[in-house]
Amino acid sequence: MLRVVFVVLLLLGLTACSHASPDTLQGKADDGALTIGIRFDQPGLAEHTLDGRFVGFDVEVAKFVAGRLGVKPEDIDWRETTSATRETDLTSGRVDLVVATYSITDKRKQLISFAGPYFVTGEDLLVRKNDTAITGPETLNGRRLCSVTGSTPAQEVKARFAHAVQLVEYPRYPDCVTALLAGQVDAVTTDAVILAGYVTQNPELLRVVGTPFTEERYGIGLRKGDPAGQSALDSAIEDMISSGDWLRSLRQNIGPSGYPLPAPPAVTER
Length: 270
Prior knowledge:
Number of domains: 2
Structural class: alpha/beta
Largest sheet: 5 strands, mixed
CATH architecture of the largest domain: 3-Layer(aba) Sandwich
Distance between the termini: 48 Å
Number of helices: 10
CATH class of the largest domain: Alpha Beta
Oligomer: single chain
Number of strands: 13
Strand content: 15-25%
CATH topology of the largest domain: D-Maltodextrin-Binding Protein, domain 2
Helix content: 25-40%
């Protein structure tokens, strides 16, 4: 009898020891919920609709990886994050993950970790449909180029292609699009897949130039010092791709914009 009790206690102890630390991603998921930072204003990628839903490709990626960690969609606490706040949202603990068109860069990896990439695109230009003079970033000298605070594409254009471009910043991409439609700026720059979402809202007025000038690898951001969490996310991304859910979600959320869907990326962040 004593032997049976000892074995039961030993098994209970092993079970307790196997529970992930509450400070890790898996530990938070084991509690049944995750807080995930997404954009609320990117059609096709991540959008908070007027009827309260969260829709888009990034949302579907977030739901899939959360599910692989054991968290149901209804147990995700969605938080809005922006280009200027993504790192601090993670490092402060405001969110557990960021899935928000978050390009993997060495500078950002000094502060946070990435899993992925789960998508690859490139920076491009959004212009008014009847403006045929803008054919690429090198044709922007003397023109007004809009991007969002905390993002880098506009600085990239000024440094590499058009030193005389006039840079304009707004807090959100929809602000830039509104300024473009009103003639207050001549072009908007960010990743092509983001711009494609705004074309779907105004196809008769806007177009993407179609000459990407960088490569942007989107990763899932998480706090540093959690290799098990990073590995779990990498495996979940690979599962989403191999299952066909990745392509299905892209076709549903991005396909209607006419954006050419890329091949799935190799997961390289380890």
